[in-house]
Amino acid sequence: MSTPEAKSFSDLGLCTPLIKALEDLKYETPTQIQAECIPPALSGRDIIGIAPTGSGKTIAFALPILHRLWDNPQSNFALVLSPTRELAYQISAQFEALGAAMGVRSVVIVGGEEDRVQQAVRLAKKPHIIVATPGRLHDHLNSTKGFSLRQLKHLVLDEADRLAIPRERSTYLFSATMTANVTKLQRASLTDPVRVDVSSFKYKTVPSLLQYYVLCPLVNKEVMLVYLINSMAQNTIIVFVRTVADAKRLSIVLRTLEFQAVPLHGELSQSQRLGAFNRFKSGKSNILVATDLASRGLDVANVDVVINYDTPTSSKDYVHRVGRTARAGRAGKSILMVSQYDAEVMLRLEMALERKLELYPTEAEEIALLKERVYEVGRVARNQIKEDDMSQNERRKR
Asked: Which segment of this protein is annotated as the motif Q motif (predicted)?
């Protein structure tokens, strides 16, 4: 779909409180996905929005929902299904920021350590916007007295299965990629949707992203990582790893070397994960060491560099990882660490992306000077993890 380019949000026909909120939040010009989605959404059409990570999809569906809420205020007006707890909190915060002057009430309904009774109390207060993960939403639909979706006017889906919801509502389906699962969701839940696809091919990186690789033997990966981070210590960096063990170990190594690093992985409690994410987002720590699962849906505006410590096994994973930087037109940098076992994977990745990664310049002498210290710190980190695991096992036995 193509619409005339909107030079400002006021060109899109949004209500005055939203225009004022956007000005206060320093949003000046709509992105392509926002400019093309908002007008048909305001007219009541279902939407399929396909756009790269970081292109402003949340605002693209939040603004038309809040505009229509301003015209017709009611409780349980919109439901947003989120694939992760962290993303749910971010979406809710976006609704509350944009709708603050309108008195918008948003609640987050997610699993994990969240207290169901407290969630039920919040639902009983009749919020306008509900942001939920599918499992916990299902629990409340089955067990929370008086809670239903019968009045729902808007539904936003993100990697969610079909739910029993009313026919008279608008549905917005947003994704970074148009996969087979998204197509199934379209058939299951949308009526004559407007399709807005601003991604020119299946797995795309944005033009403002500079993409590099470094070659390093597997045995020296920790040394190379420390060298890279040391060379860009003032930047905000996300290091992606494949396993929880790597996230634990590397965060200890980096902290021991006096870098401000925090881990984000699936073995952390919900409060620990939110604490780590908020510490990174606020700038108290400038390095986040994260697994793919724990980091899904992260929304941090100013990430300068993404380092792939482990080579992603698919172009889809690569695009989602590097999409944490170079967001909303900003410049960014990604570095892929390639060992002697990863060359073939990198070649397949380049073929899928239809572009060659550039070799990142390094100084062999500086790397050599780091080896002894990093090896020693790595050994200490491994021992610390073993001791922590043994202590946890002892506590479980008691």
From this structure: 7-35
**b/e map 125-160, b = 16+ CB within 10 Å:** eebbbbbbbbebbebbeeebeebebeebbbbbbbbb
Q: What does DSSP say about strands 194-197 and 154-157: parallel, antiparallel, or unpaired?
A: unpaired
The helix (H) or strand (E) run that includes residue 275 is: helix 270-282
Question: Same domain, yes or no, for 310 and 216?
Answer: yes
Domain CATH for 291: 3.40.50.300
Going from the C-alpha of 63 to that of each of 7, 70, 154, 194, the distances in angstroms are 16, 11, 12, 17
- DSSP, collapsed to helix, strand or coil, labels residue 130 as strand
Among 278, 277, 297, 286, smallest CA distance to 54 is for: 297
Q: Count of residues for the chain?
A: 398
Inter-axis angle of helices 270-282 and 85-98, nearest 10:
50
* Cα four-point dihedral sign 76, 82, 85, 88: negative
pTM beyond 0.70, yes or no? no
Q: Please check whether residue 4 lies inside any domain of the structure.
A: no
pLDDT digits (tens, 9 = 90+) for 232-284: 989 999 999 999 999 999 999 999 999 999 999 888 887 888 899 889 989 99
Number of domains the chain is built from: 2
165 exposure class (CB count in 10 Å sphere: 0-12, 13-18, 19+): middle
